[in-house]
Specification:
257 residues; alpha/beta; Metallo-beta-lactamase, Chain A
Length: 257
């Protein structure tokens, strides 16, 4: 099956430009250096599947003309990955139906606490009620979504155990600082690997550019795209120095998988 991958956001939790920063990347006029918070949209079988509701969810949907949402996958519950959830309610108004969401039990528990008004709302949920109408499903292994297998891939985000996702020949590993040995077989024979590459210097909770490139060399995908980049990464110069088959992603980039 063919998948259409859309990079909605490729920046860090701060976004680029960073508030109060006058560095060359933050002042750049190259649109590829303007990065909203991390998220992707995968389209297959005429379905639109979102990974994470970033802080910039509303703007990302408007900027890319996303007509509908059929499901949402959550990697983890940090603010830059979930705080756009309230704006999902506009798709409830358009579609007049609940939207299924998928998360690990730990992430689901945090979502229920953080968005208690969604999950404990009274009166019962209905489209147009003023809050998102979602069905939160807890997943601990592969599951079927619209006839396609979705594989949660356990990864490390500093001290936190979170997940990336694989669908077909695509794997998405944002906020990643380590790949456990048991997860590596889940990443074999990839067409496209999307992987965290925060900055040049090492970081305790994210891969650096050098570390990301080492993982790409080990996993051997046919193509790789780097995401979750801070303002240390200037698009044109860094992208030009990358190995064949590896590129920096940017907001609005579309890739066929």
């Amino acid at each position: 099956m063919t998948f259409d991958l859309l990079f909605l956001g490729t920046g860090t939790s701060h976004g680029i430009p960073v508030i109060g920063c006058a560095c060359a990347v933050c002042r750049s006029e190259d649109p590829r250096n303007k990065r909203t918070r991390p998220s992707i949209l995968v389209k297959f079988a005429d379905r639109h599947v979102l990974v994470d509701t970033s802080t910039d969810f509303r703007w990302q949907m408007l900027a890319n003309g996303v007509p509908r949402l059929d499901a949402i996958l959550f990697t983890h519950a940090h603010a830059d990955h979930v705080f756009g959830l309230d704006d999902v309610r506009r798709y409830n108004d358009l579609q007049r139906e609940a939207i299924p969401c998928y998360a690990t039990p730990d992430t689901a528990a945090i979502l229920r606490r953080t968005f208690a008004y969604i999950f404990e709302a009274d009166p019962p949920h209905a489209p147009g009620a003023g809050w998102p109408v979602v069905e939160l499903n807890e997943v601990e292994g592969p599951f079927d979504l619209f006839g396609e297998g979705i594989v949660p891939v356990p990864i490390k985000h500093g001290p936190w155990d979170i997940v990336g996702y694989r669908v077909g020949g695509l794997a998405y590993l944002t906020d990643c600082s380590g790949i456990p040995d048991e997860s590596r077989p889940l990443l074999a024979d990839l067409d496209v690997l999307v992987i965290d590459a925060l900055r040049h210097k090492p970081h305790p909770t994210h891969f650096s550019l050098e570390e990301a490139l080492a993982e790409i060399a080990a996993l051997k995908p046919r193509r790789a795209f780097l995401t979750h980049m801070c303002h240390d990464i200037e698009h044109e110069t860094v992208n030009a120095a990358l190995p064949d088959g590896v590129a920096l992603a940017y907001d609005g980039l579309r890739v066929t998988v």
